[in-house]
Description:
This protein is of the alpha/beta class and 193 residues long. 42% of the residues lie in helices and 11% in strands. It contains eight helices and six strands, in the order ββαββαβαβααααα. Strands 4-2-5-6 form a four-stranded parallel beta sheet, with helices on both faces. Strands 1-3 form a two-stranded parallel ribbon. The radius of gyration is 17 Å and the shape is globular.
Amino acid sequence: MLQIKEAVIVEGRYDKIKLSSIVDAPIIETNGFRVFSDREKQSLIRQIAEKRGILVLTDSDSAGFVIRNFLKGVVPKEQIKHCYIPQIEGKERRKPQKSKEGLLGVEGVTDEVIISAIRKSGATVLGEPEKPTRGITKADLFSLGLTGGENSAKKRQELLKKLDMPSYLSTNALLTALNSLYSFEELCDLVSC
């Protein structure tokens, strides 16, 4: 079981149940989109973020990204870390059919996928030394041909597909995701610098 400093924010009850067997940390549910109007939940999340930081772990579908982006506006950026699970096609066991986008959510992916995503997210895993890494900047994305160039959009889409990341990530969201998952050196290897 991973013991992490940050509290983990998930979308719903089944995500919380799944994580409780993997992570030793407080796990807070947003109750889906209800968090948008639940001022008390927002206040609780802000208080926890201020005290110990939060790790946002939502599904890799569009709804998960809407919730993730909302939380970015609720919590100061220095108190929030993002954990991304890859886009994996499939259906959760408890559901009669695939989700609207046909992707597995947090509850449907394997423990190994979640553990790997948490380790890559920059979460503070207690008992393990922190590894200092050079962050990825917008200038790096430009120099790697992922922004500002003739075929940048195509290159970004190819990279997103290669990394099993959502295809609709904006450049800023891509930068956040890359910094949560990879060092600059690892990104260079991925795009064959």
